[in-house]
Amino acid sequence: MDIGRTVAGRYLVTRILGSGFVAHVLAATDLTTGRAVAIKLARRRDEAGTSLALLRREADLLARARSPHLLERLDFGEGEEDSAYLVTELLRGAPLDQVAGGGRIDLAVLAPLLACAASALDALHAVGFVHCDVKPANLFRTDGDPPSLKLIDLNVARPIGDTTGGQFIGSPPFMAPELWRGEPVSPATDVYALAATVIALVAGEPAFPAETRIQWLRAHLDDPPRSLAARGIAVPLAVEEVLTAALAKQPAARPRRASDVTRVITIALAAGG
Predict the structure, then answer these.
(1) Edge to edge, what strands does the sheet with 93-95 contain?
(2) Is 102 found in the same domain as 82?
(3) Cis before residue 146, ω within 30 degrees of 0?
(4) What is the pTM of this model?
(5) CB–CB of 220/176 below 8 Å?
(6) 26-65 tens-digit pLDDT
(7) Which helix (H) or strand (E) holds 12?
(8) Does 58 share its domain with 105?
(9) 1 in a domain, yes or no?
(10) What would the pLDDT profile of 191-221 be if each residue is shown by its tens digit?
(11) Which of the listed residues 69, 235, 257, 269 has the most CB atoms within 10 Å of its CB?
């Protein structure tokens, strides 16, 4: 993908932002409006058109799941050679893994951003889909005063009740037990990952210590999470309790909604204990 190329006769590519499993990600200028935008350009990975199908799904979800904390879809189209392009707003800021920089983020600073993430997840669940890859790298803190957050990368989202079909999806430090077991996904799958994300960001280390895929599997299936207090981090008891509940091995034992978790965190911090 060359800088200076025009996509769909309208979007002038100005920067290469990255390349993932599904698409090349580009910064561009909309020649019609002058607006800076982001473009995902589907990669041709196999004859089954997997990348194209996944980009279509993301475009559809962004059109259906309405939340200010999901990307604003601006355009979608299918071009030559079985490719497709998805145009969204261009974000300014950084994902939370980069914001943390290998260190910790204070829970009081993180809490309003978590509420944004939960709002986006609730909107996604309301239209029948599970994100399946909630992690710090997919929570993008946008510039502003105050900063806000966007939940990004819906490439591996699955319908509620669907299974992975034997595919490995997600990121091992944040994958709920049902993903490892190949069981149906539900909003509780994202609730689990959100709680694991909170611990990783507040503690500066994963919810479960592991290095290999088999170690991650065993930890998520069998091990209880260490509390933040055991890691030397003081938070209100209600926060510890809701994170422990959200990391329950069985989906039915977890809070029903992502916002149920973040609401407890916000109230506990406001109460000071």
Answers:
(1) 93-95, 139-142, 148-151
(2) no
(3) yes
(4) 0.94
(5) yes
(6) 999 999 999 999 999 987 655 455 788 889 899 999 999 9
(7) strand 11-19
(8) no
(9) no
(10) 999 999 999 999 999 999 898 999 999 999 9
(11) 69
